[in-house]
């Protein structure tokens, strides 16, 4: 301690500060992941993607948060203790992370259409497992929650349900004393407060008869005509600036971590040579 001078000493302080910020990012990811995993009621909306890796997004957040925690701790300790071994480990791990992020981003951009097709296929597979609006089965709960909360119906639009197993095997639904075969689930019907889904409640449609087409043309204001894939995509596009800002912030911290750790390491080597 105290062996660093000039730029190296300044780099040491900055490295500690940047890793504290990095540590906070890790805490946020970890907290959100734990909350999503342990919350009393979770609609598991991501299960409309019939893929375990996508469904377990909360566990991915926990893993990312824990990893950032460890990496930030390594960087802080390496700087505070002026430990060259820790600094080398920190630099190598962080460099690998940056390379993986760049590669992942390049793959998503290069295979954007393939990724979109893949996500549609996953949603289509889970739709085939849908049972009913009141079912407690995982995929049914996911689709009902997704359609109510996101105010959408099907993948691209409400007609997607007409070609599913549910459409051919459904039990007729009693509406105003009449048994009716539906063209889409009742979770596609408009509700006043879709956020009820988050607290575990089942929102009641405002007008079921109009929603299913009794005396009113379909689509209409009492139903959701936009697809869930389209809605999710639009939501991401509307908030891309926020996502981009966070991504740029993390990238900036990572790059500064690489530069500062190099400066501190070189400063320690020079200090040793002087001694």
From TrEMBL:
<protein>
    <recommendedName>
        <fullName>Tetraspanin</fullName>
    </recommendedName>
</protein>
<dbReference type="InterPro" id="IPR008952">
    <property type="entry name" value="Tetraspanin_EC2_sf"/>
</dbReference>
<feature type="transmembrane region" description="Helical">
    <location>
        <begin position="57"/>
        <end position="80"/>
    </location>
</feature>
<feature type="transmembrane region" description="Helical">
    <location>
        <begin position="12"/>
        <end position="37"/>
    </location>
</feature>
<keyword id="KW-1133">Transmembrane helix</keyword>
<feature type="transmembrane region" description="Helical">
    <location>
        <begin position="240"/>
        <end position="265"/>
    </location>
</feature>
<dbReference type="Pfam" id="PF00335">
    <property type="entry name" value="Tetraspanin"/>
</dbReference>
<dbReference type="InterPro" id="IPR018499">
    <property type="entry name" value="Tetraspanin/Peripherin"/>
</dbReference>
<feature type="transmembrane region" description="Helical">
    <location>
        <begin position="87"/>
        <end position="111"/>
    </location>
</feature>
<dbReference type="InterPro" id="IPR000301">
    <property type="entry name" value="Tetraspanin_animals"/>
</dbReference>
<dbReference type="InterPro" id="IPR018503">
    <property type="entry name" value="Tetraspanin_CS"/>
</dbReference>
<comment type="similarity">
    <text>Belongs to the tetraspanin (TM4SF) family.</text>
</comment>
<keyword id="KW-0472">Membrane</keyword>
<keyword id="KW-0812">Transmembrane</keyword>
């Amino acid at each position: 301690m105290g062996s660093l001078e000039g730029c190296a000493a300044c780099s040491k302080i900055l490295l500690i500060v940047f890793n504290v910020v990095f540590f906070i990012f890790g805490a946020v990811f970890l907290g959100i992941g734990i909350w999503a995993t342990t919350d009393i009621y979770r609609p598991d909306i991501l299960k409309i993607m019939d893929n375990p890796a996508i469904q377990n997004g909360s566990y991915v957040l926990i893993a990312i948060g824990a990893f950032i925690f460890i990496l930030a701790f390594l960087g802080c300790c390496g700087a505070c203790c002026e430990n060259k071994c820790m600094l080398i480990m920190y630099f190598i791990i962080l460099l690998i992370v940056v390379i993986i992020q760049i590669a992942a981003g390049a793959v998503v951009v290069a295979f954007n259409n393939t990724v979109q097709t893949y996500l549609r296929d996953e949603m289509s597979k889970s739709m085939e497992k849908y049972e009913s609006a009141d079912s407690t089965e995982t995929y049914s709960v996911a689709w009902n929650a997704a359609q109510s909360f996101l105010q959408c119906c099907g993948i691209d639009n409400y007609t997607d349900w007409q070609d599913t197993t549910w459409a051919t095997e459904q039990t007729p639904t009693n509406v105003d004393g009449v048994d009716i075969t539906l063209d889409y689930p009742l979770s596609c019907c408009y509700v006043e407060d879709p956020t009820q889904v988050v607290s575990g409640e089942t929102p009641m449609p405002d007008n079921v008869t109009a929603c299913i087409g009794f005396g009113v043309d379909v689509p209409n204001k009492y139903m959701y005509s936009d697809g869930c894939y389209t809605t999710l995509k639009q939501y991401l596009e509307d908030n891309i600036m926020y996502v981009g800002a966070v991504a740029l912030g993390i990238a900036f911290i990572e790059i500064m971590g690489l530069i500062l750790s190099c400066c501190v390491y070189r400063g320690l080597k020079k200090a040793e040579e002087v001694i």
